[in-house]
């Protein structure tokens, strides 16, 4: 059986924003799209409180099983149309959704709320909502009428329960893997503080731990068109979560890189973004030998007698280091840090033996992370396949 999505709901609840609370007024908690997680869960941290008429509160209060749809907002990389499911925690207080969203209450005589949530989540995940938004230079709006006109498959209630249970199981495992990765990252930070947090170690300028004669340079200013040659060129977007993503490396004519030999990679460097989102780092390896970087990345060729690259990479991501980078990042339309400021950035340099011991710990942790990451990717592939099987 198929049904228009709009016919699956017994009611649709528009959002409210209200006004600022007066002094000593007890306001109402309002969920915004900043409380949406990519997994379709509500993040109950940082909830705003607003003054809203009591009659509206009574009509628009959210309940367990409601689905909140983002109808305005979104970005180029994240189309509008995200959804979150109101879990049991929604009943612990009074919550409304804001005016950039609306809540949908499922008619449970014909559909299971979790099943409908996954159908709607998949509309966004599969890119369908990208085709159902008004794209402007500012805010993006979902074409709600067209969205609600989508066909939703409705097997029996029993079958919907089974499908929702399977997707819940896979989603819970994905969330567990993500938590494990986050815990390992926290473990590395804790180990760093344990080993170096109270150490009386001297600071030196970044340029003083760079290999002799290497200097500090950024890459190709105008790399040209993609797909015109065999030289890979790394961009800031290729540095993801402290790693280099190979998913969408740009390839250019090797002759363009001839004028930028200083930044041609050997596979033994540390990269740091200096334009856009500054301060993102990643270590290269032999996969990237012969590639180059764009103007948005600086190449650090460290002296291994003075610093261990794994230690240096972690240090550059400490609060202290990132604070320096952000304080020296400037620009109204394009944020960037000058190489002159980066060269003199203070770097704490403990004895190399301690750095090596810390690097060994990080590398062992990375092995655990790699196994968990592989499991996560397998689960995400499985979820994608199940979505395709259930919803087409």
TrEMBL record:
> What is any one GO biological process for this UniProt entry?
DNA restriction-modification system
Query: What does the UniProt keyword field contain?
Result: DNA-binding, Endonuclease, Hydrolase, Nuclease, Restriction system
Domain called Type I restriction modification DNA specificity: residue spans: 3-180, 261-378
Top-rank taxon = Bacteria
Spell out the Gene3D superfamilies in the cross-references. DNA methylase specificity domains
Which GO terms label this protein's molecular function in UniProt? DNA binding; endonuclease activity
Q: Which Pfam families is this protein grouped with?
A: Methylase_S
Membership in a protein family: Belongs to the type-I restriction system S methylase family.
The protein depicted here goes by the name Restriction endonuclease subunit S
What is the organism field in this record? Ligaoa zhengdingensis
| Organism classification | Bacteria, Bacillati, Bacillota, Clostridia, Eubacteriales
């Amino acid at each position: 059986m198929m049904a228009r999505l709009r016919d699956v709901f017994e009611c649709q609840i528009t959002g409210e924003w209200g006004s600022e609370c007066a002094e000593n007024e007890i306001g109402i908690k309002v969920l915004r799209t900043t409380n949406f997680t990519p997994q379709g869960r509500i993040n109950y941290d940082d909830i705003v409180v607003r003054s809203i008429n009591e009659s509206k509160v009574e009509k628009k209060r959210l309940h367990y099983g409601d689905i909140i749809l983002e109808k305005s907002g979104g970005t180029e990389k994240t189309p509008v149309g995200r959804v979150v499911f109101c879990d049991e925690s929604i009943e612990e207080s009074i919550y409304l959704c804001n005016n950039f969203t609306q809540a949908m209450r499922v008619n449970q005589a014909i559909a299971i709320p979790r099943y409908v949530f996954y159908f709607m989540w998949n509309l966004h995940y599969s890119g369908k909502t990208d085709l159902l938004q008004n794209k402007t230079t500012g805010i993006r709006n979902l074409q709600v009428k067209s969205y609600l006109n989508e066909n939703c498959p409705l097997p029996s209630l029993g079958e919907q329960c089974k499908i929702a249970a399977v997707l819940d199981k896979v989603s819970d495992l994905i969330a567990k893997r993500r938590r494990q990765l986050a815990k390992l990252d926290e473990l590395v930070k804790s180990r760093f503080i344990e080993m170096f947090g109270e150490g009386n170690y001297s600071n030196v300028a970044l340029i003083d731990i760079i290999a002799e004669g290497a200097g500090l340079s950024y890459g190709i200013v105008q790399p040209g068109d993609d797909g015109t040659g065999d030289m890979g060129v790394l961009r800031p977007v290729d540095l993801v979560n402290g790693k280099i993503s190979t998913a969408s490396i740009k390839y250019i004519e090797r002759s363009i890189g001839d004028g930028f030999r200083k930044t041609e990679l050997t596979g033994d460097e540390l990269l740091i973004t200096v334009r856009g989102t500054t301060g993102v780092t990643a270590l290269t390896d032999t996969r990237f030998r012969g590639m180059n970087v764009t103007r948005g990345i600086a190449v650090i060729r460290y002296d291994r007698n003075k610093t261990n690259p794994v230690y240096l990479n972690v240090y550059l991501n400490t609060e202290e280091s990132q604070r320096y980078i952000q304080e020296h990042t400037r620009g109204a339309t394009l944020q960037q840090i000058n190489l002159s400021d980066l060269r003199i950035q203070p770097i704490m340099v403990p004895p190399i033996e301690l750095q090596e011991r810390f690097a060994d710990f990080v590398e062992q942790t990375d092995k655990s992370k790699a196994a968990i990451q592989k499991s996560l990717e397998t689960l995400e592939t499985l979820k994608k396949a199940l979505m395709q099987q259930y919803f087409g």
